[in-house]
From TrEMBL:
Protein name: NAD(P)H-binding protein
Signal peptide residues on this chain, from the entry's feature table: none
Cross-referenced Pfam families: NAD_binding_10
GO molecular function: protein-containing complex binding
Limits of the NAD(P)-binding domain: 7-129
InterPro entries for this protein: ComplexI_NDUFA9_subunit, NAD(P)-bd_dom, NAD(P)-bd_dom_sf
Length: 259
């Protein structure tokens, strides 16, 4: 099969590309930056998108935009796909886009609805929050003497697990919206923050706090979770242990303790 991966140089797109190529598929990687093994194109302007989509059987749409142009990206892609004969579009979304009132989530939901109404063959996969996002959320706070964390839980998932699922979908038939894909554990934010702090070699007090607002009420109610879909295999602790600085920080911690 000939498969185009948008965002193929990003944190999710890279493992998708690696797995597709390992499976023997012919893969094009869409990127705004010129480079080896990439097809130049820009979803913001439409430049190069027609050429990138031409002749492909499947488009795995991993490119995203946090600043309100998510649906614009999809519209540009769909227009090119129509001219190209209607390849299967595989789109990765987020668990809870229809339950958590955040601007980025609303844009994801609007894009889902646009793809469903496009008339093209499509598959939509919602996933829970990535490990890297959760780590980033708490890494900054870990620099403070006291780390406040919201009284919510998360279900972080590894991008490699999600990539494996997207590859299966890309090689299958269009399926509309498929069941959610979640991480292997649901953990309180305090537990996740503690893991990040320990991985950094620091000692910090973790303080759960209540956060006002409609979005956090949705989080508190578990609107972003998929408890019936503990699909991922790589835990948050395993992810942290694999980070390049983890071993160095643990060594520093042992040295400072005189061991």
């Amino acid at each position: 099969m000939r498969i185009l991966v948008t965002g193929g140089t990003g944190q999710l797109g890279r493992p998708v590309v690696e797995r597709l190529r390992a499976a023997g598929e012919e893969v094009r990687v869409l990127s705004r930056q010129a480079g080896p093994d990439v097809v130049p194109g820009d979803l913001r302007t439409g430049r190069g998108i027609d050429s990138a989509v031409a002749g492909v059987d499947v488009v795995v749409h991993c490119a995203t935009d946090f600043f309100g142009r998510e649906t614009d990206f999809a519209r540009t892609l769909v227009e090119a796909a129509r001219w190209a004969g209607g390849p299967h579009l595989v789109y990765v979304s987020i668990v809870g886009v229809d339950r958590v009132p955040l601007g980025y989530y609303r844009a994801k939901l609007e894009t889902e609805e646009f793809l469903a109404a496009s008339g093209l063959p499509y598959t939509i996969q919602r996933a829970t929050q990535f490990h890297a996002l959760v780590r980033t959320l708490f890494a900054g706070a870990a620099r403070l003497p006291v780390v406040p964390v919201p009284r919510v839980s998360f279900q972080p998932v590894d991008v490699r697990d999600v990539a494996g699922r997207l590859v299966d979908l890309a090689l299958g038939d269009p399926a509309g919206r498929v069941p959610d894909f979640g991480g292997p554990e649901i953990l309180a934010a305090a537990e996740l923050a503690q893991a990040v702090v320990e991985a950094s070699g620091r000692r910090r007090r973790i303080v759960p706090v209540s956060v006002p607002g409609e979005a956090f009420r949705a989080y508190t109610g578990g609107g972003h979770l998929a408890p019936d879909h503990l699909d991922g295999k790589i835990t948050f602790a395993q992810y942290l242990a694999e980070q390049p600085d983890a071993g160095v920080l643990r060594c520093r911690k042992r040295h400072s303790a005189g061991t």
